[in-house]
Write a structure and sequence with these properties.
The structure is a single chain. About 60% of the residues lie in helices and about 10% in strands. The chain has about 350 residues and is mainly α. The chain folds into two domains: about 90 residues, no CATH class; about 240 residues, no CATH class. The strands form three sheets. Strands 1-3-6 form a three-stranded mixed β-sheet, with helices on one face. Strands 2-5-4 form a three-stranded antiparallel β-sheet, with no helix packed on it. A two-stranded antiparallel sheet has the order 7-8. The longest helix is centred in the middle third of the chain and has 31 residues. The protein is globular and about 55 Å long. The termini are far apart. The relative contact order is 0.09.
Length: about 350
């Protein structure tokens, strides 16, 4: 459905009484058609389109009157359809592209909190607890990696909270910090993958290290691509917020995998694990993405294309990384990446 945005900010109308509208074609009473009336452009537009939008209020054409109500700062004129001689409204409760409802803003905040909790609890048995007990012996790059990625989890919570409380100016002011942080995350993700490949090579398991590197490198590459599209769609809030959430979910397979290792593995692996072990954690992360898609369907009547695109890319990556990890071509690419750091 085509939606036209009209800049009309002078409308203060609350109700048009029953009988003043034309119930046959959905047009407005004669006074509204006056050339100097603030709603005249909408009246003219209503003759040609089923839906007209401004940034003030919503006017819903019901069987008995025109009703005006607040709806996220927009006006929506809706036509009627007729079933058995009785007029019925044809519009849904949500219009794509309009500002989010209070439920939706709160939903993204709660999903961000869930992502942060999953990230923290996931690394608790293998990172936080050993560090507090003084028995964590890892290279400095791992600590920097952990700091940057947990900063992202907290940043996502803060940004969604700002959006939920309508502090949009502060939310937008953090944009450059988000780009810097996501760039640092991408760099640190590659550096940690290189460190793990080198550690495997030093232990005489170079081929296994090169094969498993497709998991962290593929994950951080997917996150970087999703984030890039989110930034490119910053002026399309419906795309931007969904891509930011989906991108954050796409990297949760790493903390989720730590619970698989802690509770399902009989003993910690002595070297790089097989790539197939990432299937279980990825399936759990995919469930979180499925929850987001289900909530989108329930709140908006459909699943946004952003979720379908990310879901398809995520599933394709996780399915293809198993056979690709054993190919000579991937080993050549991974070996080249490992040698990038000197």
């Amino acid at each position: 459905m085509r939606i036209r945005i009209l800049e009309i900010h002078s409308c203060r109308l609350l109700t048009v009484p029953s009988g003043q509208g034309n119930a046959e074609d959905g047009r407005f009473p004669a006074p509204w058609a006056a050339s100097n009336h603030p709603l005249n452009p909408l009246y003219e537009e209503s003759k040609r389109q089923d839906l007209c939008v401004t940034r003030q209020r919503i006017i819903r054409y019901t069987p008995f009157c025109f009703q005006v109500s607040d709806y996220g700062g927009a006006i929506v004129f809706k036509r009627k359809c007729y079933l058995g001689g009785f007029p019925m409204t044809t519009a849904s409760s949500r219009v794509p592209g309009l500002p989010a409802s209070a439920f939706e803003r709160g939903y993204y905040f709660h999903m961000a909190v869930v992502c942060a909790v999953v990230a923290f609890l996931g690394f608790a048995p293998t990172y936080w607890m050993p560090m507090t007990e003084g028995r964590l012996n890892v290279p400095p790059v791992i600590h920097v990696h952990a700091l940057v990625f947990f900063m992202w989890a907290l940043f996502l919570v803060a940004q969604t909270w700002l959006a939920a409380t309508r502090r949009l100016a502060s939310h937008r002011a953090m944009g450059m910090f988000a780009i810097s942080l996501a760039t640092t995350m991408t760099i640190m993700g590659v550096l940690v993958a290189i460190d793990r490949m080198r550690a495997a090579a030093a232990a005489g398991q170079k081929e296994a290290g090169l094969a498993f590197s497709i998991v962290p490198l593929g994950s951080i590459l997917l996150f970087a691509v999703i984030f890039g599209f989110a930034v490119a769609n910053v002026r399309r809030p419906d795309w931007h917020k969904r891509l930011m959430l989906a991108g954050s979910i796409s990297i949760l397979d790493a903390p989720i995998a730590r619970w698989f290792v802690t509770f399902l593995a009989p003993e910690p692996p002595s070297g790089p694990p097989p790539v197939a072990v990432d299937i279980g954690p990825s399936a759990v992360a995919l469930m979180l993405l499925g929850i987001a898609m289900f909530a989108d369907r329930r709140n908006n009547g459909r699943i946004h294309r952003a979720y379908w695109i990310v879901c398809g890319a995520y599933v394709a990556l996780k399915v293809l990384q198993v056979p690709l990890s054993t190919t000579a071509q991937w080993h050549a690419v991974a070996d080249w990446v490992m040698r990038l750091a000197g």
